[in-house]
């Protein structure tokens, strides 16, 4: 009886049309969903303390990505173990494209030579996204000391073995100090910190004598007269500190140490989401204000494809193995 009801027939006909129309609509929904990614807030982990040089760079990049992606980017600091804690948190989020790691070369090239066992695999547990910048480091001291050059530092350290202490808050700082000791024949005392900012605080407070500091942290303090820069660690002088000589110019010819910042996602991320994230980082680095801001703190903007970053990890892992051996550091 109900099947002959005109109202029921019309309703059934409309439902049939709606079901048929839904089929092609569903087929077009997936590309649209992919194009709309990211569709929720992003989490960017940094394995160093808030206020550190890498944290400042990460937050600047995060602000640009927010504008481009239309989603908040929450920066989370997991300081400790030379960046390993932040990297471990991201490695554990396998397949989650919205989880990011902003890290220096420590976690993906140096730490494998500094630790007997890592809580993650730098290659298998991550999906490379893009390089962000290359940067050098600055050897700084208390401006109240009589030491104004590297040559004077070497002479003073040789006169008083063990008196001069340097703070280390990341892998590069650790290797930088050990390399300096090896190449100059000096006996300096390494004092470990969870990150570089507290080492800088102790340096300015007279509890340390030296720090091989991230340029991002050192430059403002040097310009303000709160610290004295003795040398930069790369092959070339920094545009932000043109008056400060390189280590080679200061009488340590074999000294050359630079680092990089990069973004990674966990392993297992969908290729289209990895490509979209790489595009967002690359576009953010085209912002002239971001580029100028990075250069002002001693970093040179440098984006890459995921494949290029993967190759950088491979070649730099080998290079840092050589540097760690040169510095005479045994894995812990």
Automatic annotation (TrEMBL):
The keyword Signal applies. InterPro entries: BUG, Bug_dom1, TAT_signal. PROSITE patterns: TAT. It comes from the Bacteria. Residues 1-29 form the signal peptide. The keyword Signal applies. Keywords: Signal. It holds the Pfam family TctC. Belongs to the UPF0065 (bug) family. This is Tripartite tricarboxylate transporter substrate binding protein. The lineage of its organism: Bacteria, Pseudomonadati, Pseudomonadota, Betaproteobacteria, Burkholderiales.
């Amino acid at each position: 009886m109900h099947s002959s009801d005109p109202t029921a027939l019309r309703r059934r006909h409309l439902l049939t049309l709606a079901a048929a129309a839904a089929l092609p609509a569903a087929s077009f929904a997936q590309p649209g969903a992919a194009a709309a990614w990211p569709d929720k807030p992003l989490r960017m982990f940094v394995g160093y303390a808030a206020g550190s040089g890498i944290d400042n760079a990460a937050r600047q990049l995060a602000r640009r990505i927010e504008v481009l992606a239309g989603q908040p980017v929450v920066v989370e600091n997991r300081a400790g173990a030379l960046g390993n804690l932040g990297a471990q948190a991201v490695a554990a989020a396998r397949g989650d494209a919205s989880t990011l790691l902003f890290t220096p070369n420590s976690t993906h090239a140096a730490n494998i030579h500094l630790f007997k066992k890592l809580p993650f695999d730098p290659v298998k547990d991550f999906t490379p996204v893009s390089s962000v910048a290359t940067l050098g480091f600055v050897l700084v001291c208390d401006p109240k000391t009589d030491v104004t050059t590297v040559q004077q530092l070497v002479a003073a350290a040789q006169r008083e073995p063990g008196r001069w202490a340097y703070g280390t808050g990341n892998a590069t700082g650790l290797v930088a100090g050990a390399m300096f000791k090896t190449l100059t024949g000096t006996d300096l005392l390494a004092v470990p910190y969870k990150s570089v900012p507290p080492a800088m605080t102790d340096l300015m407070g007279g509890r340390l004598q030296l720090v091989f500091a991230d340029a991002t942290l050192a430059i403002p303090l040097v310009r303000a007269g709160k610290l004295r820069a003795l040398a930069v660690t790369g092959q070339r002088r920094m545009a932000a500190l043109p008056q400060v000589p390189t280590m080679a110019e200061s009488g340590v010819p074999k000294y050359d140490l630079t680092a990089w910042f990069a973004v990674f996602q966990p392993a297992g991320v969908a290729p289209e989401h990895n490509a979209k994230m790489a595009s967002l980082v690359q576009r953010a680095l085209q912002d002239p204000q971001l580029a100028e801001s990075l250069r002002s703190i001693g970093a040179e903007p440098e984006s890459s494809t995921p494949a290029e970053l993967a190759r950088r990890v491979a070649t730099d892992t080998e290079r840092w193995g050589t540097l760690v051996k040169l510095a005479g550091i045994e894995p812990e």
